[in-house]
Amino acid sequence: MPIDTLDRFEVKYLRIIDENGTADPSVMPPLPDALLKNIFEKIVLARTFNQRAMSLQREGRIGTYASFYGQEAAQVGSALAIAEGDWVFPSFRESGVLIALGYPMRRLYSYWAGDERGMQAPPGLNVFPMSVPVGTQAPHGMGAAWAMKYRKEKKASITYFGDGGSSRGDFHEALNLAGVFKVPAIFFCQNNQWAISMPRQRQTAAKTIAQKAIGYGIEGMAVDGNDAVAVYKATTDALDRAKRGEGPTLIEAFTYRLDDHTTSDEASRYRPKEEVEAWRVKEPLIRLRLFMEKKGLWTREYEEGVGKAALDAVDREIEAYEGMAAPEPSDMFRYTYDELTARQKRELKEFGWER
Amino acid sequence: MEYMQREKISYRKAIYRALDRVLGSDEKVVFMGEDISEYGGAFGVSADLYRRYPSRVISTPISEGSVAGAAVGLSMTGYRVIVEIMFMDFITLAMDQIINHAANIHYMYGGQVSCPIVIRAPAGGYRGYGPSHSKTLEGLFLGIPGLKIVAPSTVQDAWGALISAIYDNNPVLFIEHKLLYNMEGEIDLDYKIGPIGRARIAREGADVTVVSHSYGTHLSMRAAQELSAQGIEAEVIDLVSLKPLDIGAVAASVEKTGRLVTVEEGDLSGGVGAEVVSRVVEDCLPYIDGRIVRVGKPDVPIPASIMAESRVLPGVDDIVDAAKRTLSWE
Which of A57, B60, B270, B285 has the fewest CB atoms lying closer than 10 Å? Predict the structure, then answer.
């Protein structure tokens, strides 16, 4: 008996703007100038926030911080595709996603300073707290999408994680369930090539992370994660499909972590300098700038103005964060359960923290 | 590698040397964990072991559950496996493999196979790492038959207990407190802790028994010094092993002092102190001559704010107060 081929698969990869800022007209979506400028401005804002966060950490004004430098296109491009009402499940590296969504930067700084109130999202912004454990948020994103399906809402969830997170059982179980129940969930992997000290090749023997979707019978797509327009298009398409009831999508954005894992890391111990330099010239702002210049949307004065506005905004937010009143210690007890237990009431009294 | 017979080294180094000795003398020992090779381990314990034993010191993908599962498979087929869990908080991701598989297999297979696995777990707070990177979870494992738990507080015991744990034929949870890693102490390479399950009298005293383990032992010793200055002599017992629990050592001390304080960093509810006190009450009620007090964390998550954290985790003052409260029934 001959060997039959039961099925064949391919892994799609989308890039629209190359490193020289040249767009491929066959895949370039008709984007309004205002949106392109918004992407550019949000990337500058996010990067400014990030730079200041690094300095604040070194000055002891916030705690350990995870930089997203180099990943701004993947974060801002995807975030601007998210519609009001969609639910976002970020990992700890997604400060840039939150900034693009309009999350108050003062709260992000306070979160990174150890104040849990910083992760209380303002009304109208459906953002879950950043997941510091790796990949554990994937089943949550799946469950939230399931709820949307039950409620017959035209909404979707988007769960962010990294290449390291794709090794977690939670990731696989979440993709599997999302496929079986055909829920409107997007799983957005920022493959930044390094999970602390482990390169992507040592995280999985698979050629791509996008192809893992095939095993779970869901859509999978790879995208140039440093091309903000390609990321925006891939995320928009996936969200549209999900909202049409066509099921989940796994997106793998190829990008690069230009900084250390966190401020507690020293990546030069395990990562070749040449590799970092090769990626540095591919960082997202360079090509967006060149592309916009060709379209007459970018001038040096424009960027200077955007940069100054971003710096002013970030400085104002830092000032607001540092002026925030300290949290009530009794909050620790109050938020452990929905109500205070008898034991906690007694403990509050013993601590002298009753109100 | 040759080491000096007696030397002053850090707790971190003592664990490194125990690992080195076992890996170097036994080809059937494998050490797995996240970022334990080039990165050197989250707390720098594994250091250069990966270069010296490249095929047996393995950095794994971020998959605590499946790594624990792989350790079960390896150990059932003739290997002794050491698994490093980056932070003890993440052990929850491997609970199924530890509780339902590693700890059960010897019983389920009628003694035909065993799972000699050591799960090394850096535990504890006081570092501002927040609710998901600071826990002390030994209480969760006290009721798991088939599992042993050790939590040494000294450099010498870290060395001895780790070697004993690796050569124990049962799965052993090995708890290392983050604040102990840099602590230095004397090590004697000939020292053998022997089978797991014996407590150590860290300080003798006649007025009150203070029972603790891991970093709590050091807090208790400092409290004992303060109490001594006030004329109260505390006997400090370092449990070393939490399962089996050397309740005989505790009972003998309580029969002498009549008073008991337990000190732990984990939750008081269902914690080590709860177990110690229950057993002491069962065993030595006629000898008890004062209030029994448990010192530990109240029922709240561990805050990231270091000021709040230092308030909810036990400190020397809490132990001093507790010891004084045992001296009266008021």
Answer: B285
pLDDT surpassing 70 at residue B329: no
User: Is B92 an 8 Å CB contact of chain A?
Assistant: no
How much is the pTM? 0.88
In percent, how much of chain B has pLDDT > 90?
82
* Catalytic residue status for B282: no
Nearest to B304 among A116, A169, A202 (CB): A116
Residue A351 exposed, middle or buried by CB count within 10 Å (0-12, 13-18, 19+): middle
3-state secondary structure of A195: strand
What total number of domains does chain B contain? 2
- The CATH number of residue B204's host domain is 3.40.50.920
- What is the span of the domain harbouring residue B227? 200-326
Which chain B residues touch A135 with a CB distance below 8 Å?
62
- Please tell me whether residues B220 and B89 are part of one structural domain: no
Q: Is the pLDDT of residue B111 over 90?
A: no
Cβ within 8 Å, pair A343-B299:
yes
User: Could you tell me how many residues make up chain A?
Assistant: 355
Residue B76 in tokens? 């059932």
pLDDT of residue A121: 87
Cβ of A114 within 8 Å of Cβ of B130? The answer is yes
Confirm whether the ipTM is greater than 0.90: no
Q: Is A15 a catalytic residue?
A: no
From the candidates A93, A261, A271, A287, which is the catalytic residue?
Answer: A261
Quickly count: other Cβ atoms within 10 Å of residue A135's Cβ: 25
- Same domain? For B51 and B168 the reply is yes
Q: Is A160 designated active site?
A: no
Buried b (16+ CB within 10 A) or exposed e, A278-295: ebeebbbbebbbbbbeee
Is residue B82 included in any domain, yes or no? yes
